[in-house]
Structure formats: structure tokens, C-alpha cells
Design brief:
By secondary structure, the protein is α/β, with parallel strands linked by helices. Helix content is 48%, strand content 13%. Strands 2-1-3-10-4 form a five-stranded mixed beta sheet, sandwiched between helices. A three-stranded mixed beta sheet has the order 5-9-11, with no helix packed on it. The protein has a three-stranded parallel beta sheet with strand order 7-6-8, with helices on one face. Helix 4 packs across helix 5, helix 8 crosses helix 11 and helix 12 packs antiparallel against helix 13. The chain is globular.
């Protein structure tokens, strides 16, 4: 009897599968080794400069003791940490290289590599820049204004404005600011007529706003405000928030603070870089510079809530500052005056009109959604803290 041959039990595909598995293992081992090498040296991913780490010399528009300069330092630290030291941003305080109001020119010309300030400080160069911070922003808060800037066309419009000025810069906006107080006064503001002849410090389009309301306006950088009030050069001033105002010493020279205003209801910070200098950075470094803005924006917003509320409590309870709510008649007066002023500027300035129209279209749906969607926080606050009492003083 003839015995049949037994077919082979091993599939012909097995050698290929084994080879593929072995190849995959070798690849993973090689990749792991490369990763370890990259972590160990800290060099390959970001491509250090030929002579070592890349350094950027930057300046803020703020005094060294202002929390705003702290925000600038926070951003620099995030970039420095995320690049593992391959990129080092040095952040100097206002006046170290250039004056606070000259920051745009200093960055554009390469006198410094970058800067940290606010768009309103460039208002004298183009009135349209005031719309990023000075004014009621059609009811938007600062976070909504940033949403418009990022997703509603504002970023392209700001680039267009800067291009019209020949500014050689790249701008990143971030850090939504809470509504700013009307300011610090010798006595409570009770009516629009109180601004007649008042020597007042403000910046941006608020200069024109309060001048139209009868004030004698002087724009001053932060570091000069308290000295001017002490000398009587100005009678009253607004700056920004409880922490900055307290650090500057505004509570030492003025006993009254008026809360709530539309003059700077939706401002944010600006990080500027010289365009040519930024272009010399390796691509991964440029990505970190950009994405660190978002990380710093969230951190800044959280820090502001913590610090501003603490200093507000200190000023109320220990320094006995008298806080008043700005009367609704004054708030409405700000809106009426601003609208007339903005209409004139739009009629004579095409860029101003283009930016304002874009903001208005975004605000109509965003503010409507927010007001309809958001619950009344004062109701919840009163439910839990009514017994402690927290009324404004009556003016």
C-alpha cells in the first residue's frame, strides 16, 4: 500500500510575519534609543543655535512692581521652560530700553526683540487700535473680544492695521482683563457734570471719551500716575485693577474708588515680537512661542481672579477705601458719548469702521447668547452670603 505524503503544517506566510515582527521590534528599539538621546541632550527637537541657546531681549510696558510685569515674566518662563532652555526670553520692565508708550516702535525697529503691553498704548498711531480695549465693545467682555479676535476676523484686521503703519511686528493677544473701575477720585462721582474741568488720567480712546465729557485729560504711563496725583497735576485717575492700583499706591493718594465703567470694559494684553527676529527661530520654537500664549492666557485669567479679589478685600477692610458703584446715569453717559465719538471716527477712518463693523456683527450674537444662557450670579451670591452684607456705599 502506497503511503500518501503528509502536507507541510507550516504556512508559507509565517516567515514574512516573523520578519515583520522582528523588523517592528528593531524599529521600536531604535526609536526608543533616539528618544532617550533627544531627552538626554535636549538639542535635536528644537535645534539650538550654532553658539548655544537662542536669546530674545524683550521689555514690558509695566513697572517692575506691577502684576502686569509679573504676567509678562510668567509668559517668558513658560516659553523658557517648554523649550528646555534652548530659547531664553529676558523680560525687562518699562523704561529699561524704551518708554512704555514707545514699545511698538522699539519692537518694530528691533531695538528690543519683543514686548508686552496693550494695544491701546498705540492709539496715537491709528485710532482703530482703540477698538481692542478702549470702549464698551458692543457689550462684549474681554474674553468675548478675544473670541472675536481669534475666530471672528479680528486677528487679520489687526495685522492689516499694523501693516498700514509699516510696523514690522507679529502680535499675539491674550489675557482677558476684568471690567476696569471708573477710577480713583477725591470724592464720589454722582453725575456726568462732575467731569467738567476734572484733571483726569486715562489712555487710548478713553482720552477722547472723557475729554468729550468735559475732563482735562492727561495720558500718563503707570509709573507716573501717583506722583502726578500727589503734586496735583491731575485730580483723578484710572489704571486697571485692585492689585495694580494698590501696588502703584493709588489708594494712598485717593480715598474713593468708583467701580464699573464702559471706558475699558473689554481689554486684553498684547505680546509683540519683531517679525524678522521671530522668523529666524526654528519652526518648533516659533510654535512654542505661539502656543505658550494660550497657556499664559488661561493662567493669567485664573491668577487675576485670585489676586484681584484678595486685594479688593484688603482695600475694603484694612485700608478703608470707600468703594462706590458708578451711577447708571454716568454709565449711560459714557455709552452716549462714546457712540457719537465712534461715529465720527468711523466716518473719517475706513479702518476704524471696518474693525467696528466686524466687532458689532460678532457681538450681536455672542452677547445675546451669553445673556440668555448665563445665570444671575448675584442671586446665588446673595443666597449664600447675604448675612455677611456686601452693599456698595451710597453716593
Amino acid at each position: 500500500m502506497t503511503r500518501k505524503a503528509t502536507p507541510p503544517t507550516t504556512s508559507v506566510a509565517m516567515p514574512t510575519a516573523v520578519a515583520t515582527t522582528r523588523t517592528r521590534r528593531r524599529f521600536l528599539a531604535t526609536a526608543a534609543g533616539a528618544t532617550v538621546g533627544a531627552v538626554a541632550t535636549g538639542v535635536p527637537m528644537l535645534a539650538r543655535g550654532a553658539t548655544g541657546p537662542v536669546s530674545l531681549r524683550c521689555q514690558s510696558a509695566w513697572p517692575a512692581n506691577d502684576i502686569f510685569h509679573e504676567y509678562a515674566l510668567d509668559y517668558a518662563k513658560k516659553v523658557n521652560d517648554m523649550t528646555g532652555g534652548d530659547l531664553k526670553i529676558e523680560m525687562l520692565p518699562a523704561g529699561a530700553v524704551a518708554p512704555a508708550f514707545g514699545l511698538l516702535d522699539a519692537v518694530s525697529k528691533g531695538v528690543v526683540d519683543g514686548g508686552h503691553g496693550v494695544v491701546a498704548y498705540h492709539y496715537d498711531k491709528q485710532a482703530a487700535l482703540a477698538l481692542w480695549g478702549s470702549g464698551p465693545a458692543f457689550g462684549m467682555d474681554a474674553n468675548m473680544l478675544l473670541a472675536w479676535h481669534r475666530y471672528g476676523g479680528g486677528r487679520d484686521l489687526l495685522a492689516k492695521v499694523y501693516a498700514s503703519l509699516g510696523a514690522n511686528v507679529v502680535s499675539y493677544l491674550y489675557g482677558p482683563m476684568p471690567t476696569q473701575p471708573l477710577g480713583w477720585f477725591k470724592k464720589p462721582v454722582t453725575k456726568l457734570g462732575d467731569f467738567a474741568g476734572l484733571k483726569f488720567r486715562t489712555v487710548g480712546m478713553s482720552i477722547d471719551l472723557y475729554a468729550a465729557m468735559g475732563a482735562v485729560v492727561t495720558p500718563l504711563p503707570a509709573g507716573e500716575i501717583v506722583a502726578a496725583m500727589s503734586r496735583g497735576t491731575i485730580d483723578a485717575a484710572e489704571y486697571n485693577n485692585m492689585t495694580s492700583d494698590r501696588a502703584l499706591g493709588l489708594s494712598d493718594v485717593s480715598p474713593v474708588c468708583m467701580l464699573q465703567s464702559f471706558h475699558q470694559n473689554a481689554e486684553q494684553f498684547e505680546i509683540l515680537f519683531n517679525k524678522d527676529k521671530l522668523a529666524t527661530l526654528p519652526g518648533p520654537m516659533q510654535a512654542i512661542v505661539a502656543h505658550a500664549v494660550d497657556a499664559a492666557s488661561a493662567d493669567l485669567a485664573w491668577k487675576a481672579i485670585d489676586r484681584y479679589s484678595k486685594d479688593y478685600l484688603e482695600l475694603r477692610t484694612r485700608q478703608k477705601v470707600r468703594f462706590y458703584k458708578t451711577p447708571d446715569a454716568v454709565l449711560q453717559g459714557e455709552l452716549d458719548t462714546y457712540d457719537k465719538l465712534a461715529a465720527r471716527k468711523a466716518a473719517e477712518n475706513a479702518l476704524f469702521k471696518e474693525v467696528a463693523d466686524s466687532q458689532r456683527a460678532f457681538a450681536e450674537r455672542a452677547v445675546r447668547w451669553d445673556m440668555d444662557n448665563s445665570v444671575n450670579r448675584r442671586m446665588a451670591f446673595n443666597n449664600y452670603f447675604r448675612e455677611k452684607g456686601w452693599p456698595f456705599k451710597k453716593s
